[in-house]
Amino acid sequence: MPAFQSESTLLVRGSVLHFLADPGENDAADSYQYFDDGYLWVEAGIVQGCGHWSALEQVVPAEVRARAARHDHRGRLILPGFVDTHMHYAQAGVIGSFGRQLLDWLNHYTFPAEAAFADPAIARHTADFVVQQLLAHGTTTASVFGTVHPASVDAFMTAAQAHDMRVLCGKAMMDRHCPDNVRDTAASAERESQALIERWHRKGRLRYSITPRFAPTSTPEQLAVAGALYAAWPDLHVQSHLAENAKEVAWVKTLFPEQRDYLDVYARYGLIGPRTIYGHCIHLSAAERDVMVATGTAAAFCPTSNLFLGSGFFDYAGAVAAGVRVGLATDIGGGTSFSMIRTLAEAYKVSQVHGVPLSPLRGWYLATLGGANALYLDDFIGNFTPGKEADFVVLDLEATDELAFRISHATTLAERLFALTTLGDDRCVTATYVMGVRAY
Ligand code: GUN
Ligand code: ZN
């Protein structure tokens, strides 16, 4: 059972912003709602509605207003909780490891760090730390890679469950091209994943994500096991990596010569479709993109990681224009910050490389409803329409002197939001709520 119980009726006051749809490249006005002096009404952890504070008496019955707890965040921005669509919790200790690109970085830093998770005490300590960091950065949902060790998933699910968070997590499956101390087999991966699914999938808000690390570290037999699990259980998710780095793409070609391209490897083993998401997707052909669109396979855009590891520049505007579902992600620990705000700032810079600047409102859509949509969790989270789970973050736009000074020169909502994108980070996070309960 979660350690936190909802305050049953809650009225939150502040500047409320949420999205109803993708604002597109020009920030379409009908894609979002903004209430400068607004309310958010929550009952038993579920959103009942939001609107102008001045309309409260007409909309919210007197007996509800009488019993409600009131949280006053006037002057602060209230947004749906951030959705980090791809991260590796066990890599928190190797963020900022110098001088390598993907394949060398994995061998030199990442696999040794993950090997330490054979010790469940290290897994528990790190999981508790990472969940605390997520909440401190305003992130209420994440799609999370465990290590090859099943206890790494137990640790993360336990830590997230203590706050009743909606998270996805899975045990990494990897049975070749990695050190023995982080290697499983097709058979053990099947057995262990199955046991973890039974233990965690759909327990409260938790969902299991089948997690073949990436094509080079799984044999065809293991990829087949992953695909069979995805097909066998309702609502399972799949997470992996795709077309991150040029050398990786060339390697996949030699490992799977029969497949037309990288995505076709995952397609061959039944690993594309609804609730599947692939990190990076930088070096994709038009044909691969078309298959992602046709099958509803999502991409996780990881700009801080892609810059840090020198992987390349994801074409966000091009992918979305083609119809790909895209979420934003930190990719800790290839990525360099838990902050989805800082991640958004880097996403903007990457979008400039492609000559299509990520517009101010669209960025915040991407960090909230866009991520929920990419993870197929938008029935539950992502905005403040009635019936959604009340996960939200309260942001202070004057948290630092440089941000406050810049904001004092801003005249429009878009300008303020873009200043927050560029200069904001976890110092702006005043509070984070999960299911209507203040968790940070
Ligand atoms: N590809 C396979 N494993 C990983 C990982 O841990 N991080 C990143 N960025 N890419 C990967
Ligand atoms: Zn990753």
Task: Report what the structure shows.
It is a single chain. By secondary structure, this protein is of the alpha/beta class. The protein folds into two domains: 9-80 and 382-438, Urease, subunit C, domain 1 (Roll); 82-338, Metal-dependent hydrolases (TIM Barrel, Alpha-Beta Barrel). It is 38% helix and 22% strand. The protein has helices spanning 56-59, 62-67, 102-115, 120-136, 150-161, 186-200, 220-232, 246-255, 262-268, 286-295, 303-308, 316-322, 340-353, 360-374, 401-408, 413-423, and strands at 9-19, 32-43, 46-52, 69-80, 82-88, 139-145, 168-170, 172-173, 207-212, 237-242, 276-280, 298-301, 326-328, 392-395, 429-434, 437-438. The strands form two sheets. Strands 5, 6, 7, 8, 9, 10, 11, 12 and 13 form a nine-stranded parallel beta sheet that branches. Strands 3-2-1-4-14-15-16 form a seven-stranded mixed beta sheet. Helix 5 (150-161) links the parallel strand 6 (139-145) and strand 7. The two termini are 19 Å apart. Guanine (GUN) binds at residues 88, 102, 106, 110, 213-214, 241, 244, 305, 331, 334.
